[in-house]
Amino acid sequence: MSNVKSILLVGVGGQGTILVSKLLTSGLIKAGYDVKMSEVHGMAQRGGSVSTQVRYGDKVYSPIIGRGQADVLVAFEKMEAVRYAEFLKPDAIAVINDHEIVPLPVAAGLTEYPQGTVEAMSSAFKTLVLPAAEIADSLGNSRCMNIVLFGALVKAFGMTDIDWKEVMREQLKPSILEINLKAFDAGMAL
Amino acid sequence: MKKFMSGNEAAARGVYESGAKVGSAYPGTPSTEIFEDLPQYAPELYCEWAPNEKVAAEVAYGASVAGVRSVCAMKHVGVNVAADPIFTAAYNGVGGGYVIISADDPSMHSSQNEQDNRYYARAAKIAMVEPSDSQECKDFMKAAYEISERFDIPVLYRVTTRVCHSKGIVELGERENVAAKPYVKNIAKNVSAPANAKANHPKLEANLRELEKYACTSPLNRMELAGSKIGVVTASIAYQYAKEAFPADASFLKLGITNPMPMELVREFAAKVDKLYVVEELEPYMEEQIRAAGIECVGKELIPNMYELNPEIVAESVFGTKAETRDPGCAIVARPPALCPGCPHRGFFYTMSKHKDYVVCGDIGCYTLGSADPLRAIDTVVCMGGGFSVAMGMAKAFEMAGQTDKKVFGVVGDSTFFHSGMTGAAEIIYNKGKVIPVVLDNSITGMTGHQENPGSGLTLMGEPAKNILIEDVLKAYGYENIIIVDPQDLNAMQRAVDDAVASTAPAAIITRRPCLLIKKIKHDIGLCRVDAEKCRGCKACLKVGCPAIFMKDGKASIDATLCVGCTVCAQVCPFKAIERMGE
Predict the structure, then answer these.
(1) How many CB atoms lie within 10 A of CB B505?
(2) How far is CA A99 from the centre of its chain?
(3) How far apart are alpha carbons A156 and B480 in whole angstroms?
């Protein structure tokens, strides 16, 4: 079990965490790992906080992790990074999208969006903070933000021995492939 | 061939490989994808969405009586609805193998409770099979059908959220061609009249005794022997957690058949170890039976009986291992789920929220979110179909207590109406309830991810179907004043409510607008924006609870990536500061 790695992807329903987990699991399976993936469906998808867990190694039993067990976090929204921080190992890497999605209690004027989330994460963990939304916009399609983050994860977590572009060619529709390959490169370049 | 599959996909594959021919289900998280995955196996297999779980269990049971392998599937609370036929099917026994899939939801990710349905297997006296990962979801299905036919008994196939929605690598097999057994009329077996039931009960008891003996030798119940200090009895997803939480020299008794409990096998295993642990999610279902058999064990005094477990919780509760974590020390805000921007339910609940004298009994579905801040427009939610009948009880109580200032509304969705709202609608007419039934018709079963229903005009297998009109049903029941309204038009919505409240004839409201997420409909998508000159920062627009509106520098602002231009916010703005662009 000691060689099992755990990746935690968190964000807000609709941000594209599922596609990233699909690419991750496809590549890891091709590379010969035992892989398990867990996600939650249903009510949480309606603008709520979502998380997907990907675990791989020689033999994986549990599809989910508990506190202090993730090797790497990818937060598609910065406050969500803090929400799931307790699931990280003390030496984990946190890849954080410097992007804010206002939750309903804030939108409704009941409370304020917290300040200093990125700084707090950086003081506790090794972090890679990137403006994935802006990068995706500059590439011409805000929807490929998730793939920018995917590239950043691959770089930050040292998963470069897998040919991820090959995986993307197999998994993505031709119409969106080019922009996503660019997004992946942009994430990797950070 | 190997495939990366969720437990639900693998269970569907297992149904197919087992040669089953008929399936019926009602959608419910976390079970839904099992049946969404079945139509690909047509025409060898027929599958359908039933109006509710009881119907699904009965349809599948009928197919079993007729001689084919059959399946029904539902979420854990669905088994409450389906319990009636299941309990008697146990006495009558089966023809072709009969499998009832119960998908439990520990931690209530998308449910109103976390009941432990393993107790149903004991109470109904039926067999229970529990897979612990995707491969087992497929493989154990075949074993479940063999058990059902060999021991003449229905099988409860019990899975949980993390078994259903986790993916793992699955080695696929081929479909076994199981011929239908010739149907032979057998009144003593299949007609549950008292005299027959009296004769069938001892047969059932004998079958259970034989099944328990079989369970002690079945490969589904296996020992993984390592050291002799620690032994762990476990099943389902808890096995996966325990394998990571216990040391490598712990021995395991991993159970796949958990009713009847293979007690002689447990006794044999217990004798091999110094200390026996029982690791199970939710209630002490196995532990209680093991203790009652006089076998000493440790279980729920250490391991929580609430919420789902994980490897860390098991390790901490059993061994006191504290997880090493770091706290970034930054307070955060909750991110509760909300009605989507453009959700047709918003207009109705906003209208309800404006009146303190309205009592609204809600129901299960997306529209349960009408109870959330800032709308807070629902008083009760209990169960599927409960919206109408709970409202009836409240109205009668107000009447008896002489409380005349309340106006009571019972609210169900379109799929829920066909599920079990119809009986409540009949109740209100029959017993003269001072209740206004409201059907929120968004043309789909929304929360579970858009399944067809008797009002949507299509079947699970994609064939056109008679779409039953809700207004026709209500009319047939005797509702004389049926008001159909677009809930997105707030003035019309309020008029509809006023009309229904003032009506001397029995009145009902149908709010009709399709869910914006239905892909096959062309929706009128637009964009609203705030004129900052006109906005006075009164925050009236925030009261509609739309995720697309927020305050920025004292003025309302609309997130253009979320807004769909439904104009509900524009209609409530007292300064006409919000307008739909291009109009």
Answers:
(1) 9
(2) 13
(3) 66
Taking alpha carbons only, the member of B391, B485, B496 closest to residue B437 is B391
- Which CATH number is B528-580 given? 3.30.70.20
> Is ipTM over 0.90?
yes
Domain regions of chain A by residue span: 5-188
Which of B252, B395, B228 has its CA nearest to residue B314? B252
Distance from CA of B534 to the nearest CA of A (A): 19
- Cβ neighbours around B529 below 10 Å, total: 17
Q: Which of A18, A23, A37, A43 to mutate to test the interface with B (most CBs of B within 10 A)?
A: A43
This prediction has a pTM of 0.96
Residue with tokens 């919000």: B578
In one-letter notation, the amino acid at residue B323 is: A
List, for residues B280-324, the tens digit of each pLDDT value.
999 999 999 999 999 999 999 999 999 999 999 999 999 999 999
Residue carrying structure tokens 């590379």: A31
pLDDT in tens, B76-104: 999 999 999 999 999 999 999 999 999 99
Alpha carbons within 13 angstroms on the beta-carbon side of residue B564 total 16
Chain A positions touching B446 (Cβ under 8 A) are none
Calpha distance B45→B64 (Å, rounded):
14
Nearest-Cα distance to chain B for A43, in Å, is 5
The predicted-structure confidence for A40-72, as pLDDT tens digits, reads as follows 765 555 678 889 999 999 999 999 999 999 999
Yes or no: is domain A5-188 CATH 3.40.920.10? yes
